[in-house]
Amino acid sequence: MDQATEVREKIDIVSLISEYLPLKKMGRNFKTNCPFHNENTPSFVISPERQIWHCFGCNKGGDAFTFLMEYENMEFPEALRALAKKAGITIKETAFRKENIRKRKNIHHQQSSIKVLPLYLN
After folding, report:
1. Which residues 6+ apart lie within 8 Å of 17 measured at CB?
2. Fewer CB atoms inside 10 Å of the end CB: C or N, the chain?
3. Which residues make beta-bridge pairs with 53?
4. How far is CA 27 from the centre of its chain?
5. What are 26-41's pLDDT values in tens digits?
6. DSSP of 33-66, one letter per residue?
7. What is the CB neighbour count within 10 angstroms for residue 52?
8. 67 vs 64: CA distance, rounded Å
9. Which of 67-71, 104-108, 114-118 has the highest mean pLDDT?
10. Is the per-residue pLDDT at 110 higher than 60?
């Protein structure tokens, strides 16, 4: 099982969304006004059974990751880290990510060196 799946299984979508929005129980699901568009009648539905959300007004929907990405304007890696922390799961940095971080540090170091170089040429 990959880490995203592990996090998805540990996070309860109703608890997560209720940290941001007031929810009302409606049968097996929960409803509230959609945070992504203006509306008077709640069309934002959260299914605890399926661990998904959907707005019948703007047609957006997804899981805990997509909610956090939309609501907090995050990219997937940020949402994964935030939800993993909430679930008490430590995310392992992949070799690919470590290599990207190393490359960014090298580029930053090279750019710093280039800025200093003209001082030695004068």
Report:
1. 23, 30, 32, 46, 53, 67
2. C
3. 46, 62
4. 28
5. 999 999 999 999 999 9
6. --TTS--SS--EEEETTTTEEEETTT--EE-HHH
7. 16
8. 5
9. 67-71
10. no
